[in-house]
Design a protein that fits this description.
heterodimer; A: 338 residues; alpha/beta; three-stranded parallel β-sheet; 16% strand; globular; B: 409 residues; mainly alpha; two-stranded antiparallel sheet; 12 helices; 63% helix; transport (chain A); Amino acid ABC transporter substrate-binding protein (chain A); Solute-binding_3/MltF_N (chain A)
Chain lengths: 338, 409
């Protein structure tokens, strides 16, 4: 016991020491690789494909950051994290940025000492049930057994929702999305709840997706976005503005296809500043002037990433909804590049 | 003339601390202790400094704030508005429950298998060694997951009990064995004065009285045997002592059974033993039983063959030799390693989250840790809880060991 206390203290001291180190940018450059925390596997957001290459919407953000900082979108080490391990991984310095459908909440931003740099997906918690149950509203779920991922905001929202509606339920806590699928399909739980985007992604992986419906109630606000450690603001700026660059690129019509052509210079000063042909934005964040151009080229702008990974043409089939550009009635709005 | 020589005065010299063998070991132990204290305080100080640098502090204030999450299996009152401390208590009780049940079944299975491993029957012996080798050589986490997966896949779900073309039905209309767990009839009392826990306290009191009654009966039987050489037949008296008062009390308090019935999404009413509890309990039991079986075998083999032969020459039958002569002596060898197995089982129960059983690691070390982000505080508290539970088990088992160990007079 004495020994384990000792080792425990040693580990904790080690973790804390690593977290205290600043200048993530220098670390990443010295390492030549970006350590990016992602999910353990959620089709469309982050999952390894048949060749073992990570692919998805969150992965696209990681690759854009790697392209901006290191010039190579493949220079990323993907670290799969669960709902439980993700914050420790980021706080300890094991990963440089966490891009894993993480909800931006007050206490995570302040008490846990992280900085959310923006929102890459506006989501909300929903419920999925088998059609055979004949349920059409979440309020009819009195007495149901609900599968739920632990360590997320989901279980708090769920407790609130059922309490507010004065109905009972039986929670079945589960570690990962992959473990939840068979439990739900075997009927060990009646309902599966997580973010609506995650439900759509999970359902897409089923043999017969049409047998399951996602109930209309969205019971929470879940702004999902990448986050970094609090205290290293230079690194936070880079991640924030890489995300903004992807969003702005869609607004200005810069795509991975035409970015080379536009980088030669256009008559739109916004695009010129974004792509580095005008002004000196890159050096202000410690990078060169082509950083945003490389980020956009890595996987395309925000709209391209969305359509390719989770959009309506994919099996996941999510509509843009709140995630459309502000010019199209959505919430995406990048601050100006100047 | 007489010379009076005083013994040389024992003035203290520092060199004695090193050179005098009486003090040397104390000196070195003291130095070692100082080093350990220094190292610990350096680590602790380092931790505090680093936490301060990261803007964090150690605080247990979060334990008093509402937990905000629900727990399915709770032995005490708990809802999402209860505090984190109460959630931790629910977890502690769940850990103790599965550890208690697991220790009992593991011991029963372990003793059974351990004895049979020494059977003269080749087939029985080989089957038992196969069991031991399979179960103790695969990690317990895998057994937990396998058993849970089989549980869920093999047993019907509540939806299979529904409708006119139901593919599953309740056993005798009383028991429902589903993939979500077992629903069993629940006894309750209708008499007014037996409401709440009072009725059950009376039942427990009667059982304790019956226990002492049967002890007394057995003592009387032994006394008669010593005096007359014939042991009176007492089994029907024993049965009477156990069951007659119990039946009277149960009927007097108006015993009724609540039968589980399908209502809505699940069965309602009755006792619900969750699949997570059963799978975890079963996995921990059969895994630990494999180790206990080996302890039992070692204990039996440690008893000289002469004991068996001596008992046989007195005319005892083989099963009485085992129960009266071999096992009581073997216990002295079995119990010390058995304590370790109980401790292992208790600590292995922290794998519960793999099947969604909300034990201490699942509540305090899982959801509470995640929602509050107070990792260091939660882990320290977790260590303290497990340490306390383990030391308590050790203390109880050591007391038992002292009771059965060889008395040297």
């Amino acid at each position: 016991m004495k020994k384990s206390v000792f080792l425990g203290a040693l580990t904790v001291a080690g973790l804390a020491a690593a977290a205290a180190g600043a200048a993530t940018l220098d670390d990443v450059k010295a390492r030549g690789k970006l350590n990016c925390g992602v999910t353990t596997g959620l089709v469309g957001f982050a999952a390894p494909d048949a060749n073992g290459q990570w692919d998805g919407f969150d992965v696209g953000v990681c690759r854009a950051i790697a392209a901006a900082v290191l010039g190579d979108p493949t220079a990323v080490e993907f670290v799969p994290t669960t709902g439980k391990t993700r914050f420790t991984a980021l706080a300890s310095g094991e990963i440089d940025v966490l891009a894993r459908n993480t909800t931006w909440t007050f206490s995570r931003d302040t008490d846990l000492k992280f900085d959310f740099v923006g929102v890459n997906y506006y989501d909300g918690q929903g419920f999925m049930v088998p059609k055979a149950l004949g349920v059409s509203s979440a309020k009819e779920l009195d007495g149901a057994t609900v599968c739920i991922q632990t360590g997320t905001t989901t279980e708090l929202n769920l407790a609130d929702f059922f309490r507010a509606n004065n109905i009972s339920y039986e929670p079945v806590p589960i570690e990962t999305n992959a473990e939840a699928q068979p439990l739900y399909l075997e009927g060990a739980c009646d309902v599966y709840t997580t973010d609506a985007s995650g439900l759509a992604a999970t359902r897409a992986a089923f043999e017969t997706p049409a047998d399951h419906i996602i109930l209309p109630e969205i019971i929470s606000k879940e702004p999902l976005g990448p986050l970094v450690r609090h205290g290293d603001n230079d690194w936070g700026d880079i991640v924030m503005w890489t995300l903004n660059a992807l969003i702005a690129a869609e607004e200005y019509g810069v795509t991975s296809a035409n970015v080379d052509e536009l980088a030669a210079g256009t008559d739109n000063p916004e695009i010129n500043r974004l792509l580095g042909t005008e002004g000196d934005l890159g050096p202000m964040v410690g990078l060169d002037n082509q950083w945003a151009m490389r980020a956009i080229k890595a996987g395309g702008n925000y709209g391209e990433l969305f359509e390719k990974n989770i959009g309506e043409s994919t099996p996941i089939g999510l509509a843009r909804g709140l995630n459309a550009q502000w010019t199209d009635g959505g919430l995406l709005y990048s601050p100006p590049f100047r | 003339m007489t010379t009076l020589s005083d013994p040389p005065s024992q003035s203290f010299q520092f060199s004695k601390l090193i050179n005098d063998t009486r003090y040397r070991s104390y000196t070195f132990q003291f130095i070692a202790l100082l080093c350990v204290i220094a190292l610990m305080s350096y680590l602790g100080w380092n931790l505090v400094q680093n936490l301060r640098a990261a803007g964090l502090n150690i605080s247990y204030g979060f334990l008093g704030s509402p937990a905000g999450y629900d727990i399915n299996q709770r032995l005490i009152e708990y809802d999402s508005q209860s505090t984190h401390w109460r959630a931790a208590m629910v977890g502690v009780l769940n850990t103790l429950l599965v550890a208690f049940l697991g220790c009992i079944t593991a011991t029963v299975i372990g003793v059974f298998v351990g004895v049979l491993r020494l059977s003269k029957n080749w087939l029985v012996r080989k089957i038992m060694s196969l069991y031991v080798e399979i179960f103790r050589n695969v990690p317990v986490l895998i057994w937990i997951l396998v058993i849970m997966a089989i549980f869920i896949a093999v047993l019907p779900q509540p939806r299979d009990f529904r409708g006119d073309d139901a593919t599953a039905s309740m056993l005798g209309g009383l028991f429902a064995f589903t993939g979500r767990g077992f629903y069993l009839p629940r006894p309750y009392f209708t008499a007014e004065w037996a409401a709440g826990g009072a009725g059950w306290l009376v039942v427990i009191g009667v059982l304790i009285a019956s226990f002492f009654g049967s002890r007394k009966l057995s003592a009387w039987a032994s006394k008669t045997q010593e005096a007359t050489g014939v042991r009176p037949t007492t089994w029907y008296l024993t049965l009477g002592i156990w069951f007659v008062p119990l039946l009277i009390v149960l009927l007097a308090q108006g015993l009724h059974w609540e039968i589980p019935a399908l209502a809505g999404f699940n069965f309602q009413g009755g006792i619900f033993a969750r699949n997570s509890l059963i799978a975890l309990w079963f996995a921990l039991s059969i895994y630990t039983a494999a180790f206990i079986a080996e302890n039992v075998r070692a204990g039996i083999l440690a008893i000289s063959k002469g004991q068996t032969e001596a008992a046989a020459s007195l005319g005892l039958r083989p099963n009485r030799i085992m129960n009266l002569v071999i096992l009581p002596q073997a216990l002295r060898v079995i119990i010390p390693p058995l304590i370790s197995q109980y401790l292992n089982l208790t600590k292995n129960s922290s794998l519960a989250i793999a099947v969604g059983y909300m034990d201490l690691t699942g509540t305090l070390g899982g959801i509470t840790l995640n929602q509050t982000g107070r990792a260091i505080e939660c882990v320290l508290l977790l260590m303290l809880f497990y340490l306390t539970i383990s030391l308590a088990i050790s203390a109880i088992m050591n007391a038992y060991n002292n009771a059965v160990k060889l008395k040297e007079r």
